[in-house]
Specification:
alpha+beta, about 15% helix
């Protein structure tokens, strides 16, 4: 497997990478951002970027597929398909 998706992701994000350790299944290093250096791990097979505050899944072309925040309780933690509130549902009730 290749780190090419990771490199494409970095280009899209306009950051540079410094790889400090490379193994067949994972690389580690730093992202050089305008805010400073940010450590990362990238699992090559899974195409997941592990940052201090989030995990980013990318596709083979480096586009983000999902972000899983690793922060304490930011709501229900699930992906709600139905965003209507009970008030919105009853508002259309003809009775």
């Amino acid at each position: 497997m290749s780190v090419k998706p990771l490199m494409h992701w970095a280009i899209y994000k306009n950051v540079t990478l410094r790889i400090t350790r490379r193994q067949p299944e994972e690389v580690e290093g730093f992202l050089n951002t305008p805010e400073g250096r940010v450590p990362f791990r990238y699992r090559i097979q899974e195409r997941r970027i592990f940052l201090p505050d989030q995990v980013i899944a990318i596709n083979p072309w480096g586009w983000e597929r999902s972000q899983d925040a690793r922060e304490p309780d930011k709501g229900d933690g699930g992906d709600n398909a139905d965003d209507t509130t009970p008030d919105e549902e009853t508002r259309h009730d003809p009775s």
